[in-house]
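Weekly modeling sync, notes
Attendees: S.R. (lead), two postdocs, one rotation student

Agenda item 3: backlog of single-chain predictions. S.R. asked that every request posted to the team notebook include the full sequence so nobody has to chase files. The rotation student volunteered to paste the first one in as an example of the format we agreed on. Action items at the bottom.

Example entry:
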Amino acid sequence: MAKDVERSTHRTSSLTLEESRHSLTGSPSERPRVAVSSSPVPDPNDVSKIPMPDDGDARQGDALTSAGDDNPKIPMPADTLEILTGRSGSKSGSTAGASGTGSSSGTQTGGTNANEASGSGTSLDTMVGRLVVEQGLATNDDVEKARAHQVAHDDPSQKSLAEVLVGHGAITHGQMSRLRRQVEAERSGQQIPGFRVLGKLGAGAMAAVFKARQISLDRDVAIKVLPRKFNQNKEFIERFYAEGRAAAQMNHPNIVQAYDVGRAGEFHYFVMEYVEGGTVHDVIAHDKRFEERDALDIIINIADALEHAHDKGLIHRDVKPKNIMRTPSGIAKLADLGLARAIDDKEAALAEKGKAYGTPYYISPEQIRGEVNVGPQADIYSLGATLYHMVTGSVPYNGKSPKEVMEKHLSEELIAPDHVNPKLSAGISEVIEMMMAKSRKKRYRTAKDVLVDLRAVRKGDEPPNAHKDTLMDAVVQVAELHSGSATDVSNLPQDLFTKQSVWSEPVVRFLVSALVVLVIVTVVLFVVIIMQM
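Predicted structure, as returned to the notebook:
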């Protein structure tokens, strides 16, 4: 995004340490606030300030990043767009595609009639005949009959093969129009069959994304292309196709849909739904933070998407603002399944044991440790970190290096979001803290549980799961205090000026308790005797 924005630090001098909390179950705004250093810290939105890759070295990069967010460290080859759009040979006047599928004629575009050179017309008819059969629009017999008709009717205004097929009722006029566009794309040297590449949308560390037009269905799509420099890297290629297979299993309105994955010439490509609009990261970079209601609407969409993915047996493992698209109508969509993995894929889990896959700002503790049994709760943690960033304008943990940030995820206490942004409700703060609990035992178990609380907070109610957890923590703390396990009361200073109540004496409390028990037993015995009379 070209527009410069004013960046701020992590709520510096306005936060102070309060002496005590008013109640164990009160509003998070009443809790002790942690003092934050007044010195500025690196802003994660400014990659020049912190040597941390936006996407991690072990992943494939962002899908559908907006124009202007290209990664200057790993640029795409300068000729990639020219090759994909068939413009690389324009200087020499040749329009034949590098893949060998274009026409040998010097004419770049044209219709399918006899006004073209005879060689070009023959080439066009050959391409049309191939395409109608490949797409199941007509049979080989239909094509042969149409060609025989062309030969039999020798006249100056000889119709093209497409026109004859229309006349015979084999294809419609609309299908003929789409075939013409496909032929034009192939003859102009377009490298991905059936698609006309329009321009570059953006690039991540390991791939670039282009906007294209799918000719057969007349719709815009996004095409993710693996750089040619990775063509010999089997691991990258396998991950690329694994992303396509994972996305193909999804069918949800809040997940970017997959259409196709394959190879065209020297390019591996992945065709997906084109989402008009920017990413959540773009909004944070421009406006710094979201309003609570807007953030909840987006996160509810993504939690719904994650529930669908988890039900399909997949974990995303890289939920973050850059992987959440937002349409002009406000619908959020989860993108980039480059790190997605089957939950029960033990072989892949063992192969990745001890390795941290994810983005440092949003990665879960179990991913950092490279645990084998990483599951849906890892996505819940990352979604919580994303929500934290959205409503506070700051990442949960920051640092000068990926290692420092990840160490904080493991050991440093989270600053409550409503202490960073006092305008937040108590409910959303409770939800975020439960989503980001370091221990999975204290974290939400499923995306469905998260949705229950998110929707409750969105309606202005208390989150039943997170609030119950808060109350349970309070009960445990009170129990520990009474059992003496939390604090050694013998070492506490005694108040010598206040007269102690007689009820504080253990002997008195014992005698009173014994007396109450005796009265109860006497009453019960009396009732029994009366009933037997």
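Discussion: group reviewed the output briefly. The two ends are 93 Å apart (CA to CA).
Action items: rotation student to repeat for the remaining queue; S.R. to check formatting next week.
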